[in-house]
Amino acid sequence: MTISPLPQRLKVIIYMIACYQILGGIAGISQIFVVTSVLIYAAPTSLATFIFVLAAILNGFSVYCGIVLLKGKYLKGLKLSIINQAIQLISFVIYGCSFKYIAGFVLLAGIKIMDSAKPYFAFSWKPTWQITNTEQGKPFDIALNLIAALFIVLIVILRRRLKANTPA
Question: Which of 83, 96, 106, 157 could form a disulfide with 134 if both were Cys (CB 3.0 to 4.6 A apart)?
Fold first, then answer.
């Protein structure tokens, strides 16, 4: 399936999305590389090693999404990018189990419930990942990554434009 030449504006937007994903993934991998290397050597079958390797794979997937886009496979790259951003969309802590994965910027809008419900907003510019299973405190916390949501909307619009630009 060939796509007729893209308008320059769309190419620039796709290029920026690709660079964002590659840089976010590389930054995330860099953060965990040393710890993962030590864990794989010291305790290759531990849960902690699995969690660190999973985090590295998620960040590697972000890099892969960006590379696919840079190679000009726009429809495939944007489809993978939607998946990548969807994984980053929701962060939660429920009865000690938590999941948070961010490869890039994050603006969280969430609610934390301990004794009472408290809404919050949090911004960060560094990649983050958190996968835990603990019984401490048993809070309930769920948040939506507004930047990932914005990227998903943007990518869906780009995919529609690309599909409309593809001859049948």
Answer: 96
Q: What is the pLDDT of residue 137?
A: 62
86: its two tokens: 């969807």
Global confidence as pTM: 0.83
How far, in Å, CA of 156 to CA of 17, rounded? 13
Q: What element of type H or E holds 132?
A: strand 128-133
CA distance 8 to 87: 29
Instruction: Determine how many CB atoms are found less than 10 A away from the CB of residue 127.
Output: 26
Burial (CB count <10 Å: 0-12, 13-18, 19+), residue 104? buried
Name every residue whose Cβ is closer than 8 Å to that of residue 114 and which is 6 or more positions away in sequence: 137, 139, 140
- DSSP element (H, E) containing 123: strand 117-124
Tens digits of per-residue pLDDT, 67-103? Answer: 999 999 999 999 999 999 999 999 988 877 888 888 8
Buried b (16+ CB within 10 A) or exposed e, 128-143: bbebeeeeeeeeebeb
Closest CA to 18 of 111, 155, 165, 134: 155
Could you give the 3-state DSSP secondary structure of residue 12? Answer: helix
